[in-house]
Amino acid sequence: MQLASREWYARLRIGPLRGAGLCGAAALAVHLMSGAAQAQTLGIATMTPGSLNHTTASAIARVLKEKAGLNVLVQPTAGESVIIPLTSRGEADIGIANSLEVRVAVAESKLSNLRLIGAIHPLPTAFFVRKSTPLRTIADLKGKKVVYGFSAQRTIDIVMRAILATSGLTPADVSQVLVPNVVRGADDFVAGGVDAFYFAFGAPKVREVDATVGGIRALAIPEAGMEAARKVFADGYLAPAVPNPFFIGVEKPMGVYTWDNLLFTNATVKDDIVYKVIDAIVKNKADLVTIQPALRALTAAGLHISHSVPYHPGAVKYFSDNKIGIRGAR
User: Fold this and answer.
1) What are the φ and ψ backbone dihedral angles of 303, each rounded to 5 degrees?
2) Cα separation of 316 and 313, whole Å?
3) Most buried of 51, 167, 175, 319 (most Cβ within 10 A)?
4) Average pLDDT over residues 171-189
5) What whole-number percentage of the chain has pLDDT above 90?
6) What's CA 17's distance to the chain center, in Å?
7) Beta bridge partners of 218
């Protein structure tokens, strides 16, 4: 099987809703105002604990506090559909979301204040089933109960349609069980409400589910089906995965559905702060990885991707100072 060559990806190897978002935004605003007299305070809006992005935000917050002298608050929200406009409005200083979610949010809501910091790491994902079942491929999901809807992560449905398309399936071919976000979908899976859930590799929740149900399996995606998938979502690709503690559920070398995870801010954040954020995470990668193994894929060059969202001037200066050119999609 020929997978896209990803030298950076090998670094991964290791030896409801709206109301909740607004409440979180209010709490964050109070925190930021109370800290105005302090040195520097940043709020990082992310998803709920147990998600890949929450762990990533926690790692970044720790490094920024310990290495860059910044006071940082990690602010969980219901999902990426909340995080992006929250950050654009300046109610959070930094946000983390996948590239598709960012593209759609900007296209639909005209978030003119949103500014990109960079692509922090690839986002490898999968449909997971119980290891005790005979289900092994995406085609086996036909007629099964599968998480769907994702009202707080609206673009996940687009990704799921792309993955189903690799085996000639559509959402109509599965029994859809509506959930607000991936964490709730995993909880429903544990409770027996669905046959398959969708999540990113490296998230603590995946490890938790694996231990709770006695083992899970990542469903295989046929490379031949990627042409059909790209008609749904052009930026998705298969990246190599092998059995190891990061890729829980991978039983043999296979390709896993992947795209980029982005770090972004807004136009009101000072240039020197954004510059300091990038400089700190690049220089202290080893510290980040102790908390979030997915950040093994982080590189200064990898941050600077081509995207429809404009870069923050602080990021532009960092890339210019370090002679880092822009690259195309992975």
Assistant:
1) -65, -35
2) 5
3) 51
4) 96
5) 73
6) 18
7) 128
Q: CA angle 215-198-235, nearest 5°? A: 130
DSSP-based helix, strand, coil % in the chain, nearest 5: 45, 25, 35
Same CATH fold assignment for domains 8-123+260-321 and 124-259? yes
Per-residue H/E/C for 52-87 = HHHHHHHHHHHHHHHHHCCEEEEEECCCHHHHHHHH
Flag whether pLDDT at 266 surpasses 90: yes
CA distances from 243 to 14, 44, 104, 144, 240 (A): 10, 32, 33, 26, 10
Find out whether 160 and 198 touch, Cβ atoms under 8 Å: yes
Length of the chain: 330
The 10s digit of each residue's pLDDT in 290-314 is: 999 989 989 999 999 888 899 999 9
- Which sign, positive or negative, has the C-alpha torsion 71, 76, 80, 81? negative
Task: Indicate the fold that domain 124-259 takes in CATH.
Answer: D-Maltodextrin-Binding Protein; domain 2 (3.40.190)
Domain coordinates in residue numbering, the chain: 8-123+260-321, 124-259
Which helix H or strand E contains 101, and what residues bound it?
helix 99-109
Rounded Cα–Cα distance for residues 143 and 172 (Å): 9
Backbone phi, then psi, for 18, in 5-degree steps? -55, -40
User: Is pLDDT above 70 for 241?
Assistant: yes
Is the dihedral angle over the CA atoms 182, 188, 191, 192 positive or is it negative? negative
> What CATH number is given for 8-123+260-321 in this structure?
3.40.190.10
- Is pTM beyond 0.70? Reply is yes
Do 183 and 254 meet the contact criterion of CB atoms below 8 Å apart? Answer: no
